[in-house]
């Protein structure tokens, strides 16, 4: 978006992509708005954290998982930006990546169309290019905030393996009550109950059922019928069981996996493991 929509000064990064965020695709008329901050982040946020004020939970995701999931998901054209053709869009990727991705089709295809017409290795290479700015920002913040006591660094895997324990850890962090201090049982349980809808294991099971049975078996934790939009979104995110092992084989053959994606994942894992805040508040 723009600070003032008519003055032509984009607030998001990279700047050339700002106009894709604001204006409609000239062929379809579809329009989307995405909010992405520069690599250095919002200066006010950085100043706040540097001064020791405020608290933030920085959640990272394994870059390899990010690329594989993105490749599967974006081939389905499940988000409107993947259908933009004039100009084509790669969701806040850097300018060089945008150029390398869409020169393959002479800048006349959408991102979903491109992935659908590339081989699997070529499509994964495109998704690495598309994701590299997000991975770089994630890694930059992980390094910068690694030893800050008022920043908690967690990974998506923490939620997948120990969902309730990770949520309790976050609650302790914001309440500033490290173990063995007691939390008010009723409030904690209410928080956990409310969050069950977003449990990644539950969500994946629902997505699998939605693909196989039309989603009628997807229920909220309270037993109610889950909203159809939510069910479809979960189904779109679920890959075929055989897909990811095959994608890993193809990724392992790419130079960019060994020079960038793999090392970035190792650094992110190290940063989250060394988070003093996560240890202090009893994260699993």
The gist of it:
The chain is built from 14 helices and 2 strands. It is mostly helical. The chain has a two-stranded parallel sheet with strand order 1-2.
Structural Rg: 20 Å
Structural class: mainly alpha
How much of the sequence lies in strands comes to under 5%
The low-confidence runs, each spanning 5 or more residues with pLDDT under 50, are 1-25, 32-41
* Number of strand elements: 2
Give a quick set of tags describing it:
284 residues; mainly alpha; two-stranded parallel ribbon; 14 helices; 2 strands; disordered N terminus
What does this structure look like?
A two-stranded parallel ribbon has the order 1-2. The chain is mainly alpha-helical and 284 residues long. It is built from 14 helices and two strands. It has one domain (15-280). It is globular and about 60 Å long.
SSE blueprint and pairings:
Layout (H helix, E strand, L loop, with lengths): L14 H8 L20 H8 L5 E5 L2 H13 L19 H8 L8 H7 L2 H25 L6 E5 H6 L1 H13 L9 H11 L4 H14 L14 H10 L5 H9 L3 H19 L2 H5 L4
Parallel strand pairs: 1-2
Helix pairs in contact: 3-6, 4-6, 5-6, 6-13, 10-11
